[in-house]
Amino acid sequence: MGHENNDNPAQEQQRPISVRGQLEHILAHLPADELSQFVLETAVYDSAFRETFLITFSDLLSEGQREESRYQTRLHKILAQYTNKDGYISHKNAAGLIAAITSLLDTARKATTPTRESIDLSIAVLSIMPELGEKMDDSEEYLYTLMEQTCTVLLECFDALNPEAQQDCLERILGIYAEPAYLDLDLDSFLLVLLKDWARDDKMRQAACLRTQEAMLKGSEDDQWRKSYLIEQTNNLLAYWKSE
Fold it and tell me: pLDDT at position 112, please?
């Protein structure tokens, strides 16, 4: 596909030098059908471009519904690419896997990505953490880094939500926090930071957090260490909210 060159020196001088300027110049003059064809052809063969494109414009597909399950499916496909025949993710493959997931989270942090999609993707990433902890060689502590990045996206997005959406997000995180696997992997503290912050000025949210803590305590009566740990975390929550 070719385009005519213009040898007019005056027009040559007007063409932009910066990368952004060149992109803007091309987009301003490229016919829409050629741009569409380029996007389609590139997306078929370039998975990174495809994922970024789909996340950025996924609001055109979702019709206001949660996309967490779709993102989980996408993440499991990425996991499969880095998992060997024994179901294990080696040290070498772990680096590539985390880089791929981090790339998705970077897209979620872009201003052009709808907030709802950023949250759904982040919660989908949280949901696969137990599987990563079970399958992956994590001698480099990738899980902690990924958990921190994911929770950072959630923190950045939360204030942009309306009160109803905030409550929904809080309840979804409470559901994840209550799963024993996150405490077992020492990832619960990241989630607790979210809950502490989001419920700081809201008594009803604080009550919801405390109900979850109480339910977890009841489920840990046969595990003295877990019970003591949860009591300590509950006291930390109360002390933090009181100090604020």
Answer: 83
